[in-house]
Amino acid sequence: MAISFFGKKPGTDERAKPAAASGKSAPRSELSTLDFSGAGDVGRALAQCADKVEVLEGGDALLAVAEEAAMLFANGNDVEAAAVLDAALDGAVGEEAGEGLWLMLLDLHRLAGERARFDQRSAAYAARFEKSSPSWEDLSVAAPAPAAGVVPCVTLSGSLSGQAAQQFGKLVEFARGNGGVRLDLGRLRGADDLGCQILRKTLAEMKRERIDFELLNCGHLADMLGGQLSCGRRERQESWKLLFDLLQRAGEFDRFEELAIDYAITFEESPPSWEAPSGEQTGDRVKLAAAVRPDSDFMLEGDITANEQGQLRRLAAFAAERAMVDVDCSRLRRVDFVSAGAFFNILATLRAQGKLVVFRHVNNMVAALLRVMGVDQVAQIVTRR
């Protein structure tokens, strides 16, 4: 959602264009030379930042308002931030303001749970811009926790080998403690016979203990194994058996029968027999699961502060093996100044590696701060409405 703070039409601000559009990494911002570690004096860092922020001609006063309000909000001074925005919109520069300042204030009222003030300002917004205003949503209430019974997803990546034995032991413990697990096999790049044996034993152990599990993207691993196995080559028997298991769960009966003939010829013994899937392990369900990417999105939520940057570290790790990452920010309330700097440093590194990160459903107060810090130079920011 392109929003101008200065009354221009969306798309006229050259800074808002994502760096990815040119295919080149964004230029290094002076902001990246600041100390965002949180160990220094935040007040001094804020003053230092004020000297670095670019000011555009024709919108100096409005840009200053947006920056000041964003900084106040990031520092936890919500009342002062609202006062700055109110004074600007009701004052002499209010007539020049674009939608950006209005949406910042509306989101600030949402975050504070101020329905009456939101309704008053949204009515003025509708009259000012001659279109419907954003709808009310109480963002002061903590976002609901994931629904009970939702099974966590674990993505397997790299090579499936014998070295993974210890990790698979922990996986069983994890599944046992969480009432089940979904295993996404779509990012595996290789597999050896011992790794296939360990995975089969892990699945058998969970089945024996009646731990719920689901395999996602099993077709990816099945195709990879199928390309490694040859009829007549008496080797990698555990890989053959895992391939039978995958085809069984995917409901691919014809392919299973063809493999059974090849297996009998290769190992001179009876192949595993087909068992009709039952309950939730039907072919339709598995194929549907294989068609989606449950790990395509990363979620940020709550308040991200200098003392609580675990989400940023997890985002960096999540993006390590992906070319593009969509980040759901619908439950993200606030980012403080120090963390916004950490955002920039992490995203600048990812952008230099050719990765694109898109932040979606960002509240307008957080979005304003991220723009002040230059994050829009190294990632795309899509605001909520």
Strand order of the largest sheet: 4-5-6-7
Query: What kind of oligomer do you see?
Result: single chain
Give the DSSP E fraction (strand runs of 2 or more residues).
5-15%
Order of helices and strands: HHHHHEHEHEHHHHEHEHEHE
Global structural class: alpha/beta
CATH architecture of the domain at 153-291: 2-Layer Sandwich
| Cα end-to-end separation | 8 Å
Give the CATH level 1 class of the domain at 153-291.
Alpha Beta
Q: Return the CATH topology of the domain at 153-291.
A: Transcription Regulator spoIIAA
**Shape, per Cα inertia axes:** elongated
Largest sheet: 4 strands, parallel
Number of helices: 14
Radius of gyration: 27 Å
Low-confidence segments? 1-58, 143-148, 278-296
| Average residue pLDDT | 77
**Fraction of residues in H or I helices:** 40-55%
Count the E strands: 7
